[in-house]
Amino acid sequence: MRDIRLVRNKELSIGEALLPVLVLIALLAYNVLIFGGDSLNGSNQFILLMGAAVAALVGFRRGVSYRQMIGEVADNLKSTTEAILILLLVGALAGTWMLSGIIPMLIYGGVQLINPKVFLPVTVLVCSIISVATGSSWTTSATVGIALIGIGKALGIPEGMVAGAVISGAYFGDKMSPLSDTTNLASAMAGSDLFEHIRYMTLTTVPTYLLTLTAFVIIGFYYQPVGIASPTEIMRAIESTFYVTPWLLLVPAAVIGLIILRKPPLVALLAGTLLGGLFALIFQPALVTKLAGANSLHFEAAYRGVVNAMTISTNIETTHAELNDLFATKGMAGMLPTVWLVICAMAFGGIMEAIGALACISAALLRLAHSVFGLFASTVASCLALNATASDQYLAIVIPGKMFSKAYAKRGLAPVNLSRTLEDAGTVTSVLVPWNTCGAYNARVLGVETWQYLPYAVFNYVSPFMTLLFAALQLKIKRLKEEAPVAVAEKI
Questions:
Q1: Where are the domains of the chain?
Q2: From 309's CA, which of 15, 157, 202, 300 has a CA 20 to 30 Å away?
Q3: 421 and 205 in contact (C-beta within 8 Å)?
């Protein structure tokens, strides 16, 4: 992650800082009204550029040069390099995992073992365990998340519900794992000890997590799946198309193992993609031959079949019509609209940062903090605003962290108060914004639009309310030692 500096522009008023945001919101609302679910396939990307153009006009009026703005956009794009490559590799991985039978194997086992009534809370628990172990919500979504979406479809459970459960569990680990980059970043920005930060987060996270599990238990108990095929029919359809064997599970186990060993996500995903291709050749040679359009499996056919699965849309037909949509992947090509969205969102965020609008908005929120609760509320509002405007999870942690650290110290509040609030409001809400890198990524990987999973991402939208509730009731608000506030204030 790049070194993020806070750009201030004393000439900029709060009205000017908010103007591009208001224009963007209005244009996006109209655009979604016109294009509906297709808005993420291109039109929203153009609207983000229009928002960037408005921000640039404000910047020109206040003396910010074109070179400065393009420089910030370039820095923003550079910071998303890994994310873009991860997106492309996830598309390739999904293709080879489908062709090799890994995802069908997981669905095959899931419909046998999991009762539909407990599927949603089990999904939250499984994703929580994987994300805590790996420290990565993105890896969790791209591996077990994809499989769980497939199992949920086979069980007749709406995709939005399943995706909400996946995201709730995945972001629990992203927030609580000592291996998570956001966990380390939030504690570093606030100046708190990492493990003290994690312990302090449990105070708000555990109640939120229990509420999340309770919500999914209730949903699972009362929801009646519609159009569900019998497990026997699903299993027969999978068996008739794929060679089903537990050996296929070695590939996802290897990927999760690499992540736990702290190997870079790109390395783990590339290894998973290549292993998926190898296992496709070993266990599904007939499917590879068919996908290549050949009569027999030779080197050229093997190469063509596996590379097609990695890069372009592929459909694997079964004897069960309802499963055919489930066994369709889009490869790397399917990720290109999301890459496009990330690039345009980074353009808007970069120009907003260059003209000083992000710092101006955060400073205005800080001025509204006249009490301890006001300080917490301003931090939460700043994180939410930055997730929506900067479109970047890291900026939603770094900028409020820089802006509010002295204010917390002046009020005699320990740094863990700030680091916990950054996580409760910055880390977990990023996935709720369609044009944020996290929201765009999860929507594309899971194949579920943000507006579909948003009502069910319980953990993510309850978290900021929980931290505000603790602040309002003055529960577990850790103070600095009696002499510390004075000493800190004297230095400011």
A1: 82-334
A2: 157
A3: no
Average pLDDT over residues 25-53: 82
11 burial (CB, 10 Å; 0-12 / 13-18 / 19+) is: exposed
Q: What's the CA gap between 197 and 180, in Å, rounded?
A: 13
Q: Are 212 and 171 in contact (CB under 8 A)?
A: no
| Helix, strand, coil tally for the chain in percent (to 5) | 80, 0, 20
Kindly state the greatest CA–CA separation across the chain.
81
For residue 237, which of 229, 245, 247 has the smallest C-alpha distance? Answer: 229
**Under a CB-based contact definition with an 8 Å cutoff, are residues 421 and 379 in contact?**
yes
The tokens for 270 are: 């590339």
Give CA torsion, residues 257, 259, 265, 270, to 10 deg.
Answer: -10
Separation between Cα atoms, residue 250 and residue 273, nearest integer Å? 13
| pLDDT tens, residue by residue, 336-348 | 887 888 888 889 8
pTM: 0.78
3-state secondary structure of 479: strand
Sign of the Cα torsion 307, 309, 314, 317 reads positive
- Inter-residue long-range contacts of 284-292, CB under 8 Å, 24+ positions, other chains counted: 284/99, 284/100, 284/101, 284/242, 284/243, 287/99, 287/101, 287/241, 287/242, 287/316, 288/99, 291/99, 291/316
Range scoring the smallest mean pLDDT among 7-16, 45-54, 134-143, 394-403: 7-16
User: How far, in Å, CA of 135 to CA of 267, rounded?
Assistant: 15
Three-state DSSP at 314 gives strand
For CA atoms 124, 130, 136, 138, the dihedral sign is negative
- Please report, as a single letter, which amino acid is at residue 391: S
Determine the pLDDT at residue 471.
Answer: 92
166-187 residue pLDDT tens? 999 999 988 988 878 888 888 8
CA angle, 173 then 458 then 349, to 5°: 75
Q: Which of 87, 67, 76 is nearest to 48 (CA)?
A: 76
CB burial string 343-364: b at 16+ within 10 A, e below: bbbbbbbbbbbbbbbbbbbbbb
Residue tagged 């009762």 (tokens): 115
Other CB atoms within 10 A of residue 119 CB: 23
Q: Which helix (H) or strand (E) holds 315?
A: strand 314-315
Pairwise CA distance, residues 91 & 160, whole Å: 20
